[in-house]
Amino acid sequence: MKQFFEGIPKIKYEGEDSRNPLAFRHYNPDEVVLGKRMEEHLRFAVAYWHSFAWEGGDPFGGQTFERPWYPQDNMERAKLKADIAFDMFDILGAPYFCFHDLDVRPEAGSFAENRDTLNEITDYFAEKMAAGGPKLLWGTANMFTHRRWMSGASTNPDPDVFAFAAATVKSCMDATHKLGGENYVLWGGREGYETLLNTDLTSELDHMGRFLNMVVEYKHKIGFKGAILVEPKPQEPSKHQYDYDVATCFGFLQKYGLEKEVQLNIEQGHAILAGHSFEHEIATAASLGVLGSIDMNRNDYQSGWDTDQFPNNTPEVAVAYYHILKAGGLKTGGTNFDAKVRRQSLDAEDLVAAHVGGMDICARGLKAAAAMLEDGGLEEALSSRYEGWQTPEAKAMLGSDFESITKRVLAEEIAPDPRSGRQEILENYVNRFV
Amino acid sequence: MKQFFEGIPKIKYEGEDSRNPLAFRHYNPDEVVLGKRMEEHLRFAVAYWHSFAWEGGDPFGGQTFERPWYPQDNMERAKLKADIAFDMFDILGAPYFCFHDLDVRPEAGSFAENRDTLNEITDYFAEKMAAGGPKLLWGTANMFTHRRWMSGASTNPDPDVFAFAAATVKSCMDATHKLGGENYVLWGGREGYETLLNTDLTSELDHMGRFLNMVVEYKHKIGFKGAILVEPKPQEPSKHQYDYDVATCFGFLQKYGLEKEVQLNIEQGHAILAGHSFEHEIATAASLGVLGSIDMNRNDYQSGWDTDQFPNNTPEVAVAYYHILKAGGLKTGGTNFDAKVRRQSLDAEDLVAAHVGGMDICARGLKAAAAMLEDGGLEEALSSRYEGWQTPEAKAMLGSDFESITKRVLAEEIAPDPRSGRQEILENYVNRFV
Amino acid sequence: MKQFFEGIPKIKYEGEDSRNPLAFRHYNPDEVVLGKRMEEHLRFAVAYWHSFAWEGGDPFGGQTFERPWYPQDNMERAKLKADIAFDMFDILGAPYFCFHDLDVRPEAGSFAENRDTLNEITDYFAEKMAAGGPKLLWGTANMFTHRRWMSGASTNPDPDVFAFAAATVKSCMDATHKLGGENYVLWGGREGYETLLNTDLTSELDHMGRFLNMVVEYKHKIGFKGAILVEPKPQEPSKHQYDYDVATCFGFLQKYGLEKEVQLNIEQGHAILAGHSFEHEIATAASLGVLGSIDMNRNDYQSGWDTDQFPNNTPEVAVAYYHILKAGGLKTGGTNFDAKVRRQSLDAEDLVAAHVGGMDICARGLKAAAAMLEDGGLEEALSSRYEGWQTPEAKAMLGSDFESITKRVLAEEIAPDPRSGRQEILENYVNRFV
Amino acid sequence: MKQFFEGIPKIKYEGEDSRNPLAFRHYNPDEVVLGKRMEEHLRFAVAYWHSFAWEGGDPFGGQTFERPWYPQDNMERAKLKADIAFDMFDILGAPYFCFHDLDVRPEAGSFAENRDTLNEITDYFAEKMAAGGPKLLWGTANMFTHRRWMSGASTNPDPDVFAFAAATVKSCMDATHKLGGENYVLWGGREGYETLLNTDLTSELDHMGRFLNMVVEYKHKIGFKGAILVEPKPQEPSKHQYDYDVATCFGFLQKYGLEKEVQLNIEQGHAILAGHSFEHEIATAASLGVLGSIDMNRNDYQSGWDTDQFPNNTPEVAVAYYHILKAGGLKTGGTNFDAKVRRQSLDAEDLVAAHVGGMDICARGLKAAAAMLEDGGLEEALSSRYEGWQTPEAKAMLGSDFESITKRVLAEEIAPDPRSGRQEILENYVNRFV
Question: CA-CA 20 to 30 A from C59: which of A33, C178, C230, D35?
Answer without folding.
Answer: C230
